[in-house]
Design goal:
Beta-galactosidase, Chain A, domain 5, TIM Barrel, seven-stranded antiparallel β-sheet, 21% helix
Length: 641
């Protein structure tokens, strides 16, 4: 054998080895695309580390990032397959009456240091989701579900901040600074984390179907120490034979508003667990808590008493308002299995009067006042004839929140969570009695001011997680700012809004229970403006659109019920004009429109109660210039002629 022949064979062998390595490298990367092929997720398991990359419309929006379920475990991809689904379903209530569930799913069979399971990756046209399932072999007692996100450099970030105005815009360094210790209190990044990339694409990071994951804490967001990425972490107790994680979700859209009406989170949720949902009725409710101390034009002073509650019930009955919510202080003390009722009012008389007037009641419960016990609590509320419970101070506890929703459903009670609850995104599909929650700075909460900017941010950030109870809709803004309420803002003249903006906010914030917080007389004095709230259906929307949206500046929302459209817009303290293009109306039809709007004299600080109501006619393709005062708003009720 010649030397030349040996050298040739050696080069051929090297070429074959390189080709094989290249082919192995090619096969080690697994991809799934969305139905319209605009989204691509790519996975690899190089050196026992599972990584993914995400592209949308040809752009990388998440760079190489790790996924893990057991700390420091070696992950191997064993097999893979791709499936698809294109179905639709009808929610009990929601922002849409029919929801399309269209995705492609890559299933990766994985081995995690001897524990077998799957990673599911779903690609929708406007979002992606990841879920781990561990169902084979021995599992350790605890796990640490962790996913990284390498968002584009130069992105801006926004996050809820409890009862304060949401944080943002901040860059990555600003997020890091936010997480630094403040005395003994450590801050956290709450979900959703909204990301605005340098080229103006918008993304939201959150989780869905937390209901299906047992033994888990809610998601925590942080910063990776070495590579400057975002990371999401859940601590998990693996006490289930087959353990399923929540879905880790990334939504995307061309505007911030696209994220608010995105249906991916509810599509990912467990389908309804309730066979009969006829008793679940979304609607509007009056609320007593912020009215205490208000003096009506006839001299009557509202408080915690029977006569005050009769007035609320009368107004609700006369104006087709479904519910009246009685807040704290209807009881004095709580012990195991017993409420000691307040002597300030006759609750039995109030209940009988509401039944006579065909107004349904809801009651508040504050767990800090004593432990009644949930096994007894919900049946007791049902025995009183209540239709719902506003549950306060339950804490950030997933298991407790899940149990409360299930137990309230057994007693046919709607449930509205108060005070920083677990968001449980998607739960309204699984248990539609979870009607709303105060996941944000509810209007005048902690008796602090509520600015136009904070509202716009919450409408574009907090609302991505689902329905919110923000208590919008005050009409006596002058009286509230003068301190003529027991529970108005602590600092007088610090609550900036206009009455047209207040009406618009009740539509913009999606909820199954719209809680309007002012006195009946305040609404009666502006009955022509109150008409917008009165006529607006709640929860039973056929279609919802965000027409305009910009963080800190404005939002415009349109919702359709049947052939009627309701449109609400608000602006920040600069004021401005939005062009409302009516491309969504039916061709060839003429519509009557009622405008509820600011005047030239309106101003959120100096003249908040100036407004006008006028009528007009519209058709498809018309453009309405919605002119808004500083901190103002604009509403339209459009009906076909």
């Amino acid at each position: 054998m010649s030397t030349r022949y040996k050298i040739g064979m050696l080069f051929l062998l090297i070429a074959l080895l390189l080709s094989a390595c290249s082919e192995n490298e090619k096969n080690s990367k697994l991809r799934v695309q969305s139905p319209d092929e605009s989204v691509q997720i790519e996975f690899s398991d190089t050196a026992g580390v599972l990584e993914y990359q995400l592209q949308w419309q040809g752009q990388e929006i998440v760079g190489s990032s790790q996924l893990s379920i057991l700390p420091n475990a070696h992950i191997s991809i064993l097999e893979s397959k791709i499936t698809s689904e294109d179905t639709s379903w009808e929610p009990v209530w929601g922002q849409q009456s029919n929801i399309r569930n269209n995705f492609k799913e890559l299933q990766l069979d994985i081995d995690v240091d001897g524990t077998g399971g799957k990673l599911l990756a779903r690609a929708y046209n406007n979002g992606v989701a990841f879920r781990f399932v561990l169902d084979k072999g021995e599992k350790p007692q605890e796990a640490n579900l962790k996913i990284e996100y390498a968002f584009p450099q130069g992105s801006n970030y926004y996050t809820p901040a409890g009862e304060s105005e949401p944080l943002g815009p901040v860059d990555f360094g600003g997020l890091t600074d936010f997480l630094k210790e403040e005395g003994a209190r450590k801050r956290k990044i709450s979900i959703p984390l909204v990301v605005e990339s340098p080229n103006q694409l918008h993304m939201a990071l959150l989780e869905s179907d937390l209901y299906a994951a047992k033994g888990i804490e809610s998601m925590r967001l942080g910063i990776t120490q070495t590579e400057g990425k975002i990371e999401s972490v859940n601590k998990v107790a693996l006490n289930e034979k087959e353990w399923t994680s929540p879905w880790r979700v990334i939504l995307f859209g061309k505007s911030a508003g696209d994220l608010v009406v995105n249906t991916v989170p509810v599509n990912l949720a467990t389908p309804s667990k309730l066979e009969n949902t006829d008793w679940i009725k979304p609607g509007k409710t009056l609320w007593d808590w912020r009215v205490h101390g208000y003096t009506a034009p006839d001299g009557f002073v509202y408080g915690i008493n029977t006569e005050s509650y009769f007035r609320f019930i009368d107004f609700a009955a006369e104006n087709d308002i479904d519910y009246f919510l009685i807040d704290d202080a209807w009881y004095k003390k709580v012990t195991k299995g017993n409420f000691e009722l307040s002597d300030k009012l006759n609750l039995e008389k109030v209940i009988d009067y509401a039944e006579k007037k065909e107004v349904d009641l809801m009651l508040y419960y504050d767990r800090r006042h004593g432990e009644y016990g949930d096994d007894e609590l919900f049946p007791y509320y049902q025995s009183l004839g209540m239709k719902g419970i506003k549950y306060g101070f339950m804490g950030n506890n997933v298991e407790f929140t899940r149990d409360a929703i299930e137990k309230s459903a057994k007693s046919k009670l709607l449930i509205d969570f108060h005070d920083g609850p677990v968001p449980l995104t998607g739960i309204r599909r699984t248990y539609p009695n979870a009607i709303t929650r105060e996941y944000g700075h509810a209007q005048q909460d902690s008796r602090r001011a509520f600015t136009p900017e904070s509202f716009i941010k919450m409408a574009l950030i907090n609302a991505i997680t689902g329905p919110l109870d923000l208590n919008n809709g005050n009409f006596d803004l002058t009286g509230i700012n003068r301190g003529l309420r027991e529970k108005g803002p602590r600092q007088t003249n610090s609550y900036f809004s206009t009455v047209a903006s207040e009406a618009a906010r009740t539509l913009i914030i999606f909820s199954g229970l719209v809680c309007i917080p002012d006195a009946p007389e305040a609404y009666a004095a502006k009955a022509d403006l109150f008409e917008f709230i009165q006529k607006m259906p709640v929860g039973k929307w056929d279609e919802s659109l965000i027409l305009h949206s910009k963080m800190d500046e404005y939002i415009s929302t349109a919702r359709r019920h049947g052939k009627e459209w309701f449109i609400g817009s608000v602006y920040n303290q600069q004021g401005g004009t939005l062009d409302i293009k009516l491309d969504f109306l039916e061709e060839g039809k003429e519509y009557e429109v009622t405008y509820y709007e600011d005047t030239k004299e309106t101003h959120c600080k100096t003249n908040p109660e100036a407004y006008r109501v006028r009528k007009g006619k519209l058709k498809k393709g018309d453009v309405v210039k919605a002119v808004m005062a500083p901190g103002g708003g604009h509403c339209m009720w459009i009906t076909p002629i």
